[in-house]
Structure formats: structure tokens, C-alpha cells
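WARN retry 2 of 3 for item q-0093 after timeout on previous attempt; input resubmitted unchanged.
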Amino acid sequence: MSRNGRILVAMSGGIDSTVAAVLLREQGYEVVGITMKTWDYQNSGGSKKETGCCSLDSINDARAIAVKYGIHHMILDIRDEFGDFVIDNFVEEYLAGRTPNPCVLCNTHIKWEALLKRANQLDCEFISTGHYAQVRHENNRYVVSKGIDHHKDQSYVLWGLSQESLARTRFPLGGFRKTEIKEMAMERGFVEMVTKSESYEICFVPDNDYRGFLKRKVDGLEERLNGGNFVDKTGKVLGQHKGYPFYTVGQRKGLEIALGEPMFVTEIRPDSNTVVLGREEDLKRRGMWVRNLNLSKFEKLDAPMEALTKVRYKDAGAMGMIEQEGERMKVNFYSDVKGIAPGQSAVFYDGDDVIGGGWIQSSFEI
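OK item q-0093 returned
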């Protein structure tokens, strides 16, 4: 009988989830490993060799580690659930003129649900992943906070997790820096994992060509939408584009239009197949509305509060006041914020703690 209980660990075959599983075993947990197959890249029609968490090599790496440490290991096929939900949403969001956040959606509605369901079947009290984040119980709430390595922190992609999910989740890497994890891996003989390159691409778009992915998923998309107008903020036509789903707010490269100065996508209007271009200062906004809220530190906000808000994963964040109005959060920034893209996640922080998050609905100027 293990002294800390039985825990189901998501093992992708990479360095982070591998060290997480080994650390938990050394801490006295009875570890059960599971590798989730979410996607077959050949189904997307892409040209790049399959890599990353769903490749055969990664699955074999995870199994080899489990065998070495005597960890019971299994593979869970969730391709149907993943495809129906995450990929359909990915396509629908771009067709709606928004920029999707598939990793957040997958964590919230696919991976954690799949892990908890299988944990119940296997009598596992807890689940674990290799995310760089922390969770604690305080004031009858389970609170997510940043990992101590702020360069690797992944709390941004975890805002959607429910209190029920957080109550059973352990993040063993949250208290370490990436350099320490690499040292631990080397000490345990995982030399190849330390030198193996890590993928930061969307798992089902490993060639990073989301436009090509959309074309392959939606018949006739390019032909149907090609020739829409680029316009400026006054409505003046500047040229033609290849279809509004192939652009995102804040984009500068790949516009294929020469206007004598750098221009950026400032707005996407799907109803008229129009893409608005402007100068960099035209991207600046002082506020936004955020929908589909999920709060972790508080059940709800009873009064406005100061918070740092991140509008994308690598965003440093900006300070401002947040105020909950029903099912939405109104954010008033203290200074201009560039490139607020509807469809992306907005995550609110109180110091290192995640207050909560939601999906960006719209931005506004004050």
C-alpha cells in the first residue's frame, strides 16, 4: 500500500511528464501511467512527419519509462472525442472570425475529463500532468498559481479547470525550474530526453500551417472566400485578401499587400469577408469583455479588483481593473494593450495566483 495514494499520470513520452511520474513514484505514490492518443496527423493531409505527443515514438518512449520503473502503463484512444470537439471548435472559431485556443479547450474538456474518468475506473485518488503550475487549497477553494519558473509557467492554459478537477490534480513540477528538471532527468539516465527538441506547435497542426489545415478541412473554403477586401478603418478598399479565416488580429507578416509602411490586421468582419488593416497604434485598446468565465480563487467577484491580465500565452500581462457583470468580465486596462484577439483566452492574476479566465469576446477604447 503506497503512503500517498494511487495516482494516474499523463505520460506523453517527453521529459516533463516523465520526470513528473518518476518524482511522484519517489514521493511514495503508486503511479499508473497513461498515454492519450488524440490525433493521427496523416488524417490532416499535412506533409510533415508525425512528431510530438501523439507519435508512435513518443508512445514507445512513455511505455519504455513505465517498464523501467515498474509502472503500470496503458494507452487511451480519445481521437474521436478530440476530433469532434477540439478540431470542430478550431475550425468554427476561425470561420467566425476569431482566433481559437485549442490547448485550453483540450485541457478543460478532453484531457482532464478523460483522465478523471479513467482514474475512477482504476481506483486512482489523484491525477497528474507535467505542467509547470501549482495548486493549493485555501478558503474552501482550489487555487491555481504560477510555477516558480515563470519562463516555463503554464498556468495560462489551465484557467478552465473546474474545482472538482483541481481537487484531484497534482503538479509535481510547479516547484522546480526547467534547468532542475533537466538535471533530474540526466541523473536518472534520460539523456536522450534532455537533448530531444520540444514541440510547441498545435498537436494536430505540427507543420504550423493552420491555413492549409483549414483548407483541407473545409471543402472549397479558399475558392469561396478568396477576393474579399482589405480595408482601412474608414472603409477605404486597400486591396484583396485570400479569405478572412486566414488572418488573425495583430498579424503583420503574410498579408501579401504593399502599402508603403507596416500594416497590421486590426479587425476581422466575417459577415462581409472583410479584413481591416491599420498601423500598429490602431491595435491599441484600453478595455475588453471576456465571456464564459471560470473563476478559481473566488466563486465570484463581488466588487471590482485590480489584476494583471494576460491576453495570450506569451503575454507579460497588463495591469487594470476587472469587474464581473453577470457571466462576463469587464477589463479596464491602465495602459494601452495591443493585439487583443477575440477567441483567445484572457487570464486574470492576483500576484502569482490565477483568479480565473475566459474567452475574449470583444475589445474597446475608452
